[in-house]
Amino acid sequence: MGRKPTGRPTSFDIAYAAGVSQPTVSRALRGDRSVSEKTRQKIEQIARDLNYTVDKNASSLRSQRSNTIALLFFEDPTPDETMINPFFLAMLGSITKATADEGLDLLISFQRMEDDWHVQYQDSHRADGLILLGYGDYTKYRERMDQLARQGTHFARWGSVSSDSSGVTVGTDNVEAGRLAGEHLLDQGRKRIAFLGHADDHYPEFNGRYRGLCAAMRKAGIEPDDSLQVDALTTEEEGRQAAKTLLDRGAEFDAIFAASDLIAIGAMRALADAGLSVPGDVAVVGFDDIPSASMTTPPLTTVMQDIRGAGQILVETLLAQVEGRDLPPRKLPGKLIVRGSSVA
Amino acid sequence: MGRKPTGRPTSFDIAYAAGVSQPTVSRALRGDRSVSEKTRQKIEQIARDLNYTVDKNASSLRSQRSNTIALLFFEDPTPDETMINPFFLAMLGSITKATADEGLDLLISFQRMEDDWHVQYQDSHRADGLILLGYGDYTKYRERMDQLARQGTHFARWGSVSSDSSGVTVGTDNVEAGRLAGEHLLDQGRKRIAFLGHADDHYPEFNGRYRGLCAAMRKAGIEPDDSLQVDALTTEEEGRQAAKTLLDRGAEFDAIFAASDLIAIGAMRALADAGLSVPGDVAVVGFDDIPSASMTTPPLTTVMQDIRGAGQILVETLLAQVEGRDLPPRKLPGKLIVRGSSVA
DNA sequence: TTTCTTGTTGTGAACGTTCACTGTTGTTTT
DNA sequence: AAAACAACAGTGAACGTTCACAACAAGAAA
After folding, report:
1. How far apart are CA A122 and CA A154, in angstroms?
2. Which of A151, A295, B314, B324 could be joined to B295 by an S-S link, Cβ 3.0–4.6 Å?
């Protein structure tokens, strides 16, 4: 029936069987409206019978569109390489769904920041665009992003939304979310609120959360105490260390707002080790609402980010960019999830 | 410099700049040894200067090899679509690493079992092979796998290792792991051990774990009591329900071996609700060692699967298959992680 | 009737590689 | 010194689509 006795059928085989030309097959299967309904159905039927599928490579090569996006996690190297930040893992689920809804394929990669790989994804036509998820020292990533932007690579990033970085960014309104957390703690009568997490511009998301907390405190007539802010990255261990530092210093505090749940969980361990009760002695609020947050004792109060919305908006934003119409950066609201760690 | 005033450089541009023919460029960049060292270096240099990368689509089209594998999660539909089983999420990390090490790209998809999509991944030349991760009613998946095998699709699956299913499977030695868990509980002096999880052939992994438990008990001279086995799927809620069923029934038991950590966590909640202490009244052992397992109170004793090894072996196995040499199925050992939920 | 649409299909080329051969050197063997 | 063989590079075609354009029919407008 086909030209070749062996191998997968091609559009030529379908065309032959349907008695039309090969490009007509291509058009029909793509849903091009210039093909009559009758021939389209006939072609679709034959394609199904012969178990034919369009060759993705040939299609992408010719059309210069891969209908694929690459999801790149970039982070500072960690000891355990296969361990992924739980928050981004959740994001992955949402992005997968969003890409599937748009009929896109999703490539993923966890290349470390040292590698140049991510730069090549679009150049090599593997993907039409990139979604970047990352954490760690922001200033290190900026350079890469500028490079990507210069090369005309399409990408959308999850992170702190500001105008100073190249590329479109989607992220939670961290300042507002920090304010929510702060107000909640103040409502519980807490007055000396510690912040665990880096608070300088190298970590703009954490910085925003801290600024939100400070704003809430000032509004309540309390001047934030800088000595209650301790640097920490998003790991349980750093959270434990940070809380320990605070305790060793003899600092007085009745609440902790941690920049992430992992930090909060680590901090709770340190508090338990020191014989302090949560929320009795110290109320704790985290950020992210990772699955483990509800497993702790007491369950952790935290700020949930709109993960589902995030994935969808990231994909939308990226797709728009690929198609030449740029969408503006977007800020998503965070939502306070009150659990036992902050209320009596 | 090139033939075209605009757009990405092609291998022709590199060839022109290097004063060689275009196929030589292709050969050089592929590392073909029939290109002299000198010209290879020259070509590589020029390629770097011109920011050239090989077009993945053209390359894959011509060579009929995409150097990409697709990772497909298939599961029975759940209420929250973006929620992914934590164990498979961990597996994802390991598979990503393994594919990166082999220089492969990784496509992922969470298509539900209803869809036919997964069948098309290889046909459309998107991927050279498939890795299947899934849970739920096994008998439903068998049919699909037989279909894949019939079509000559290359795939490797994570799950229960047995000879009866088509395709190569890699998995933990569930019987042995179940025995480990059982022996541990028996060592703690427990005699009436309940099993929470489906134990019929529709769920061969859980079934293996149960058989292992039974074997350990018989070896210790205790005949397993069927009434202490309660069906449950891998969710916290089902675990809670299962434990509640057991309690409502007035069953006597001093230990629970849950077929997964999520089930175990749910069961611990039910025990707490009933005023029973862990491990005082009931010792609990889970399976998987998901991140949350160490967060519970008390921390959960569990069986850790060799996730890192799993990813590597799955990729190896699949790659071998693609290259025409079949590797045998593999069983990986599980490792007991003793925490507070099972020892006093 | 003639001309212009509109809808549908066919034609030839192009996307950017890799593959299978054919040449061309220069070196080794007989 | 002729023949044989490497080692390397070039030539033409092929992979399976999609694109731009031409061509044809049938009905509408002139």
Report:
1. 8
2. A295
